[in-house]
Amino acid sequence: MEKNKLATREQLKIYFEKNKYPTQSQFAELIDAFKHREDTPTNKEAVILANSLASIDNAYLAYHGYNFGKEKILLTVNSQDEGEQLIDVSKTNNYQEQRKYFFGTAPYSVKIKKFQLDELAETEYYYFNYQINTNSNSSFTVERIIGNNLQVLPEGFDLGTFNDKIILTFSKIDFGQKINIINTNIKFINNTNVNIMYRAHATYWGSLFSNGDSVTNHYNLWDNLYFFYKADLKEINQHIECKVYNVDNNQLIMTGYLYAGENNENGWGGDVAMGIRNIRIECNYQNQD
After folding, report:
1. Which branch of life, at top level (predicted)?
2. Beta pairing partners, 264
3. What is the reported pTM?
4. What is the C-alpha separation between 63 and 89, in angstroms, rounded?
5. Tens of pLDDT along 141-193?
6. Does 18 or 238 have the greater pLDDT score?
7. How does strand 197-202 pair with strand 158-162?
8. Of 39, 107, 113, 241, which has the fewest Cβ atoms less than 10 A away?
């Protein structure tokens, strides 16, 4: 074989023909033909990889981490046609976006695998948030404060199901005082034949959409709840009103509207509920008795 001439794949395959053995130089050439995990890509290889990534249209996780120490955060991703993918979002460069692409095709189910925190000062907490449906008008953010006296997100915590990219941020913040969880019970009554979903949101806290009863676990420093609704009314010719009541005194707090002929993706609830522990949401066709 001519020196320094690259062997073809077919030539490499016959090095181990039956009852034959490669010479030491042939075996060395075979090994050199493999990529080793410790190999540093050449500039050309890096450019080729970067160009190929530009054509990838898979969904991905974009994440930022600030003030990171010894934290360990692992997520699992499952698609409809691939096995479980493990993503480590522990190592980040402050203020520099990191990306991890998902295997397979949408939808993608994302859950917490491991959430191990570093030591915190008395009034320090972690702020964890992620944006959903970032490429549509229905984009919204789920938020949590964790650490110290507040529960860490457990293994199996469901971040939701996604069709496009997710933007996740994780940072350490000193709030200057202790934070405690408070709960509001939410009773949801849908008197229409349309699938209506709602979500509650407060400062540093937000939930996924639901069509059933729920209980919030927002924070005492920001005891304010906002509501958002979604319902596809493209084939419906009646508007829908969703009214929020204080169950303890039956006071009407706010009214949100879902409009006929439209796909209402993130409809505003109308106002804010402050300091209320028991809430009832009633959705009816407009002008319905």
Report:
1. Bacteria
2. 231
3. 0.75
4. 7
5. 889 999 999 988 888 888 888 888 888 888 889 999 999 999 999 999 999 99
6. 238
7. unpaired
8. 39
Q: Sign (positive/negative) of CA torsion 109, 115, 120, 123?
A: positive
Q: For 218-242, how does the pLDDT look when each residue is reduced to its tens digit (9 = 90+)?
A: 999 999 999 999 999 999 999 999 9
Tell me how long the chain is: 289
Structure tokens at 70: 């010894």
Amino acid at the residue 123: T
Which distant-in-sequence residues (6+ apart) come within 8 Å of 287 by Cβ?
A: none
What's the rounded mean pLDDT across residues 265-278? Answer: 96
